[in-house]
Amino acid sequence: MTMAGNLRKVAGLGKAGGLRTVARLARRRPRVDLSHHARSPLGSSVVNCVTYQDGVRAPSGGDLVETVERTRRNGHGFVWLGLHEPTSDEFAGIADLFDLHPLAVEDAVEAHQRPKVERYGEALFAVFKTVCYVEHEELTATSEVVDTGEIMVFVGRDFVITVRHGRHGSLGPLREALESDTAQLEKGPSAVLHAVADHVVDDYLNVIDAVQSDIDQVETDVFAENGARLDPGRIYQLKRELLELKRAVVPLGRPLLDLADRPVRVVDPEIQAYFRDVSDHLLRATEQIAAFDELLNSILQAHLAQVTVAQNEDMRKITAWAAVIAVPTMVCGVYGMNFEHMPELHWRFGYPLVLGVIAVACLVLHRGFRRNGWL
Description:
Layout: H1 3-11, H2 20-28, E1 46-53, E2 56-57, H3 64-74, E3 78-84, H4 88-98, H5 102-110, E4 116-120, E5 123-133, E6 146-155, E7 159-165, H6 172-179, H7 182-185, H8 189-222, H9 232-249, H10 253-261, H11 269-335, H12 350-371
């Protein structure tokens, strides 16, 4: 059955028409093979829909409604439904089918949420900020370093719904890795939640390592011979991008601790130990971000100090040359007053003598300034 047929059947369960609009949209989109484990078509909000029994992918058959009903009748196993940037109309019927809370549904559709974990009855709703390092040849004052997205996860007794926002963070490789670990996947939907959290936090660490390379490069440039001429906008840009990374990483600390320590009905007790490991990795990422922030502050202060020193050196040079030039200016000013009785005014060698005195005085001043490091 096509995806349009699946969505029309889900729409029949909706209280106010469900997914009829989605069905119309789906007809315009290319067909999607929902059983394909690595397919991620951006032309459709439905990326994948797979049933797992005892940690093993079950044969696909029927539409979404029949799959969910069959899983519930069996009393074990769960459905993993993956979505990419669904609209409100597209998500309405799915929300009715899985009895999702309206507030959680609104957050999943609108995106731009703070990382969090919330409980709605027996279901769990988690929001993770995904990050991606943006490659660039050279860091400038306008370079984008970190790109963010979001992954929302609904976890119930017999279902997992992942909603992804952004251009990165595909869960296809994650699904493949989970399917190769039957023992872990057999623990149920909470295993998927842990895998998503672990995947997101690992990306944090990868991005942090990449950002460190940019910080090291800026630090090297600041303490180079012409470090005072470095554009400070590069440092400010790194601080802005680091702040965006901090907003994604730091708020997730408390929710992960809750998943690790507080009993939750839909989270297998064995999985909680794995959340402690993820929390430890997140703590490492948080500490590195704080260290980077302090380091950038120090680099910025060092750069400003170098600029001040360079300006002082320039002022000393200007002052020294002004003192040298002041000697001929003073002498020429005296002889330019046109008095009748001037020293050596009518002497044949008076003019060369004055020029010689000026030259000697300037040389003495120049040598003194060079000896003291002013020139």
